[in-house]
Specification:
By secondary structure, the chain is an alpha/beta fold. Helices cover about 40% and strands about 20% of the residues.
């Protein structure tokens, strides 16, 4: 921490960081410089959301009630609920409806200091709807004061109409969807839900290998509900991140560390599904970089509150406060392939900053939720101000 600090931005980059007023004379702010008074608050790098599913329609509140009554998530999915329920609503929504819903969610994230957001498809499960979702992400990336990282997740689960012929659906993902997604330049990453109720390790390997051959980065939903081999596959294929990891074992941790895969921990989903916590201390002890994200989705983590996820990462997973902060900034940037460009307050980094009205940075995680930013800077421009208390 720099007490009494200041940050100077030139264009979309950070030009200087240090004690207020101690900048070199050559960088002294001139009459054309816009000044943002942090009022004794805390400045962090713009927060990075590295795992979200925010382009969707419909609610799954009824499913929440069913799980509270004792029903198992995997059984709900087998009965056509879960992801498949959201797929039905999303397929029925227009592009305009999906764009409006997702834009409102992005504005909520921005008000919480988030400047970069990874956004997955996965609620279409057919070529046309998957492409529609990714086009919505592309359009919102162009429109808003945020950077969106699009991820193709056509392999989220097997759609209802392909349940009797899952091999045909894998063929569609590999032979039709991936080439079209890449042909339109709609994604930077391909993700697969490697899970007993979704895609086997062998099916996931086939999809991810094809995606890699087409030039996409790789991500894996790994070991969330069962130990299905996703973590080892992420290490084998050199994935950028392996996400969830509630069921990893020592061999998986060693493999992730050896391959340099970033672990993305998702406390909201862990809490919502009443799962065991992933072994955060073992991951950190092995040298794995750990990112933290909301997993904002309608079924298993319906929350926009990234700072709360940091708090839960500390309370439920054993992260330190420093690890939680790195998890939603520098390590989250690494989880979306943007290490060094953002997530850090340093000379040369992208000028994405969040200002919070607290006097001690530890208060960011001490408050149990609802810690809006007082101001947000994106690419050196002030894009959000809050007039209310933080």
């Amino acid at each position: 921490m720099v007490a009494g600090g200041a940050v100077l931005c030139a264009g979309d980059r950070i030009a200087w960081v240090g004690t207020d007023g101690a900048w070199p004379e050559a960088l002294a702010p001139g009459p054309g410089c816009e000044v943002l008074d942090a009022a004794g608050g805390v400045i962090t790098a713009g927060l990075v959301e590295c795992h979200t599913h925010i382009v969707f329609a419909g609610s799954r509140a009824g499913e929440f009630a069913r799980r509270l009554a004792g029903e198992d998530y995997a059984e709900i999915l087998r009965q056509g609920g879960g992801i498949l329920g959201t797929v039905r609503h999303t397929r029925a929504a227009s592009d305009g409806e999906l764009r409006a819903l997702a834009r409102a969610r992005l504005e909520s994230l921005l008000s919480r200091g988030v400047t970069t957001v990874e956004v997955k498809s996965g609620y279409g499960l057919d070529a046309e709807t998957e492409l529609r979702i990714l086009r919505v992400v592309r359009d919102l990336d162009r429109e808003g004061p945020w950077d969106l990282v699009p991820t193709f997740l056509g392999a989220h689960t097997v759609p209802a109409e392909r349940r009797s012929d899952r091999g045909r659906y894998v063929d569609e993902v590999v032979e039709e969807m991936l080439p079209r997604v890449v042909g339109e330049g709609l994604a930077r990453f391909c993700d697969v839900f490697c899970e007993r109720e979704a895609f086997s390790a062998a099916e996931s390997r086939r999809i991810l290998t094809r995606a890699r051959d087409l030039g996409l980065g790789l991500k894996v939903h790994a070991e969330q509900i069962t130990r299905a081999g996703g973590a080892a596959l992420a290490a084998e294929l050199g994935a950028t991140s392996a996400d969830h990891l509630e069921r990893v074992e020592a061999a998986d941790v060693e493999a992730l560390a050896g391959a340099g895969v970033t672990a993305v921990l998702l406390p909201g989903a862990m809490l919502f599904l009443r799962s065991a916590a992933p072994p955060a201390r073992a991951l950190r002890g092995a040298g794995v970089r750990v990112a933290v994200s909301t997993d904002w989705n309608p079924g298993t983590s319906p929350t926009p509150d990234l700072l709360l996820m940091g708090t839960l990462g500390c309370l439920a997973m054993g992260l330190t406060l420093e690890e939680a902060l790195a998890g939603i900034t520098a390590h989250a940037a690494r989880a979306v392939g943007l290490e060094g460009d953002r997530g850090q307050v340093r000379i040369g980094a992208r000028a994405d900053l969040a200002v919070f009205r607290v006097t001690d940075w530890r208060e960011l995680f001490y408050a149990l939720g609802h810690r809006p930013a007082s101001a947000v800077v994106k690419d050196g421009r002030i894009v959000f101000r809050s007039d209310g208390p933080s």
